[in-house]
Amino acid sequence: MSAAAAVTPKIVSQKEWMAAHKGHLEKEKLLTRLRDDLSRERRSLPWVKVQKNYLFEGANGKETLDSLFDGRSQLIVYHFMFGPEWEEGCPSCSLVADHIAPSAVHLAQRDVTLVAVARASWSRLEPFQARMGWRLKFVSSYGSDFNRDYHVFFTAEETANSTTYYNFATTPFPAEEAPGLSVFYKDETGDIFHTFSAYGRGGEPLLGVYHLLDLTPKGRNEEGLSFPMSWVRHHDRYPDAQKAVVNGCCTHEKEPQ
Question: In 3D, which of 138, 114, 128 has the Cα closest to residue 56?
C-alpha cells in the first residue's frame, strides 16, 4: 500500500462513532440544501437562441439538431471526446457513457432526450459504440461547427500556445478534444435555445463511481498518478473485468450462448 493510500483510522466506541457521524450528517444535509438552491438558480439562468443549422450523422443517417430532440422539448448533449483520427473514444468519456447510457430511457419519461456527440466520423463511432455495448444514441458532428461553437474542440495552435477557451475562460488544455455537456430547449414554435453547459469537473456528478469511491476509507486514491483519471480504462480493457461482474449482472456482458 502506498503512503497516499494508507488508512489510519481512529478507533472509537459505538457511541463516539454515532456522535461523529451525526455531526457529519448535518454538513451533508447543508450541502444538499445548497445544491438544491444552486439547481434552482441554474434553471433561472438566461438562454440564447441557436442560430445555426447543425448537421450530424448517425444510425438514422443525416440529422439536424432539431431532430435530435426526438419529439421532446429538452435535449442533453454529452460532448464525447473522440477525434476524427482516433481509433477509439476517450477512456474517461467512456466511463461517463457507462454511467449515463442506462439513464436515457428514464430521462425520456421526463421529456428529456440524451445524446452523445463526437467529431469522429460515424464509420468510426458505430463500431466503437457496438464494442462498448452502449444503448445510447451517438451521432457524429464531423464537418460541422458544433464542437467548436460549444468550446470542446481547439486548434493545434491554441493548445500549443495555451490559448484554448474552455470552461468559460482562456486556459491551457492538453488536447484538441475536450469533454462537457450542453443542454437545449425547443419551444412550441420550434425555436431552439442553449440553456446551459458544464465542463471540467462540472460534469463530475455524472460519475457515480467517484461518489462511491468518496464513501470509502481510501477515497479516490489518485495521489501520485500522472493525472487524476489515469487509472481509467475502457470497461473491456481492465485485466480483472470479469471478476468484477457478479452473477453476470453487468449490462455490458453478453448473455451466455
Answer: 138
Task: Give Cβ neighbours of residue 115 (< 8 Å, ≥ 6 apart).
Answer: 68, 75, 76, 77, 78, 136, 137, 138, 139
Q: β-pairing, 55-58 with 61-64?
A: antiparallel
**CA atoms lying within 13 Å on the CB side of residue 176:** 11
Q: Could you count the other beta carbons within 10 Å of the beta carbon of residue 55?
A: 17
Cell 445544491 sits on residue = 35
Burial of 29 (0-12, 13-18, 19+ CB in 10 A): exposed
Whether the Cβ atoms of residue 47 and residue 184 lie closer than 8 Å to each other = no
Q: Pick from 47, 54, 48: which is nearest to 146 by CA?
A: 54
Q: Hey, how many other C-beta atoms are within 10 angstroms of the C-beta on 118?
A: 30
Report the C-alpha gap between 96 and 75 in whole angstroms: 17
Classify strands 112-118 and 74-79 as parallel, antiparallel or unpaired. parallel
**What pTM was computed for the model?**
0.90
Query: Residue 240: which pLDDT band, with cuts at 50, 70 and 90?
Result: confident
Percent of the chain topping pLDDT 90: 89
Dihedral Cα 65, 68, 74, 80, nearest 10 deg: -90
